[in-house]
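Course assignment 3, question 2. Fill in each field.
Student: A.L.
Task: Predict the tertiary structure for the chain below.
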Amino acid sequence: MVSEVLCYFSSMRTTIAAALLLAASHALAQPSAPVAPPKAIVLRAARMFDGTSDSVIQHGAVVVQGNRIVAAGASVAIPADAQVIDLGDVTLLPGLIDAHVHLTEQSGENYYLNYFQDLMRQPAEQALLATTFARKTIDAGFTTVRNVGASDYIDVGLRNAINNGWIVGPRMLVAVHAISATGGHGDGDPIPPSKGIPSLGPIDGVCNGPSECRAAVRYQIKYGADVIKFMPSGGVLSLSDPVDAPELSQEEMNAIVEEAHHWGRKVAAHCHGDAAAKMAVMAGVDSIEHGSFIKPDTLELMREKGVYLVPTLMAGPPPIAAKAKSAMAARDIMFRAAIKTGVKIAFGTDAAVYPHGLNGHEFVLLTGLGMPPAATLHSATTVAAALLGVDDRATLTTGKLADIIAVPGNPLDDIKVMERVAFVMKDGVVVKGAK
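Answer field:
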């Protein structure tokens, strides 16, 4: 009896499968009705900074069809049935790029309380919290970010959720775990082993020796990394290492960079110290993050090799770290020298060290140290896009992704307006401002 019942159900499955295949083939054979193109959206404003020059265009307009820009400039043809959004006395700009964020976390004023709360949170709870950071970031006008290190694969999940349209946030390139030596910036804090906290290994980004470093790179890529971040020098917020000391050998750095490049991933190197930065540049990194103590000869080497600097001026000294004060003092000198040397400077803030959504404050800091306003805008658009390897955005020109923002007034006259983003469109969809 049992065998007869099983035979019956098996026969039914076969019949149903055959019927579904027949229906699918019939549907594919039918001519499909033409799909009407999406209705065009036209954004009008008093000014437009399109990212192709150092000036603004008066009375700018951008025509968007679907998720792409189809026309932009002072004189564009307006489709007859287009939805026209006149934003008034604002400046249109390409969606901004922050090349150094940590959207999965955020420091509080009380470092030790924040440390305990992070330790006790479940990854799912932290992921839900991260969605609020993502929303604040895109509302600040940043439609693309490079997330340079996270735990529990929360950055991968956040990126995927945004890409799937489940939540609103910026486009993300993620690094998964940052790669570090044992005891270095990126390893766990020096909690006594008797407390039962497990030591980290290559799958967590902690490695010793070239072979383990290659394995660490491969693990991060396996689990979703778009970019590789590693720690050649100490850090401000880690407890067991000096801020400027090299923490990986030249052979280990070479292995990390070579392996990442073999897999088509760019490499960001966290460096405060000059010696570590020089070693990372010789290994072939794509960018140096922070760079507080970098000397003029290393900056010149970076310029020669086309290595970008991501200065993260927003990352001020936290109350925990006295060593941050020396980094801050050296940073301003280094940055002015970088401008003079002609190093390519990409916009990055280290968001998470300060509250998310304040990324635009970096513009004032950049100009305060001598960077021209137009150059700061390029640093957060075309220059950052080149560093990230994304050539489908960052200018308001035909064919680019429709990532567009607006700020009141003219940022070339008052860069502080970049802190007051009034309108955001990502992928052709308005996420802030006029609907």
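Instructor remarks: The CA atoms of residues 175 and 225 lie 5 Å apart. The chain has two domains: 34-95+395-435, 96-392.
Grade: pending
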